[in-house]
Amino acid sequence: MHRLAGTVISFLIYSTAALCGSDVSAELKQLLKERIDAISSRDTAVLSKICTRDYQVIGSAGEKMTLAELKQAVMQTETPVKLTTILSYQPFIAEDESMAFATFEIEEEVVLDKQDIAKNSLIITEIYKKDKSRWKIQLTHTSQKICLLPD
After folding, report:
1. In whole angstroms, what is the distance from residue 59 CA to residue 39 CA?
2. For labelling, which of 23, 82, 91, 140 has a CA lying 20 to 30 Å from the CA of 101?
3. Under 8 Å CB-to-CB from 34, ≥6 apart: which residues?
4. Which CATH architecture has domain 2-148?
5. How many whole angstroms separate alpha carbon 55 and alpha carbon 138?
6. 51-58 and 134-148: which strand pairing?
7. What is the spatial distance between Cα 7 and Cα 109, in angstroms, rounded to a whole number?
C-alpha cells in the first residue's frame, strides 16, 4: 500500500502544472472532444484511432465496456447529447511524457423524448498513454455529479 502511495506521489511531483499550457495539454483536451464527437456522430473509426486497443470506459453506475463493446453500443443507440461544455480541465503529465491523466468537469444537455432537455454535470477522468509517439485514451471514467430533469 505504501509503495503504491509513494508511486502516486512521485508521479504527481514529477508531473507539472507548468505543462498545462503545453501542446500535450491541448492534445489531451482535444482527444476528449474527439471522443465525445465520435460517440455523438456514431463514428467508430475515430474511436479506433484515438483509443488504445485495451481501452475501457467505466460509467457512473460502475458499468464497464471495452472498445469493441463501446463501438457496438454506439452503433445501436441514438445519442441524445445536444451540447457539451467543458467547465474545467486539469491535466497531469508525467515529466517524460510517457503517460498522463486529466480530470474534466463537463456539463451536457441531453434531449429526452425528442423535446425535453435534461442537464447533466459530469466529472470525467481519462488516462492517456503514448502509442507509437501519439497520445491515445486508455481509460475513461465518468461520474455523474448532478442530473437535472425538466419539470
Report:
1. 14
2. 82
3. 46, 50
4. Roll (3.10)
5. 5
6. parallel
7. 38
Cα distances from 141 to residues 8, 45, 115, in angstroms, run 18, 21, 28
This prediction has a pTM of 0.77
Residue at grid coordinates 474534466: 104
Place of cell 452503433: 75
CA-based nearest residue to 33, from 104, 131, 110, 111: 104
The residue ranges of every structural domain in the chain are 2-148
pLDDT tens-digit profile of 61-102? 899 999 999 999 888 877 667 788 899 999 999 998 889 999
Which phi-psi region, left, alpha or beta, contains residue 81 (left: φ > 0; alpha: ψ -120 to 50)?
Answer: beta
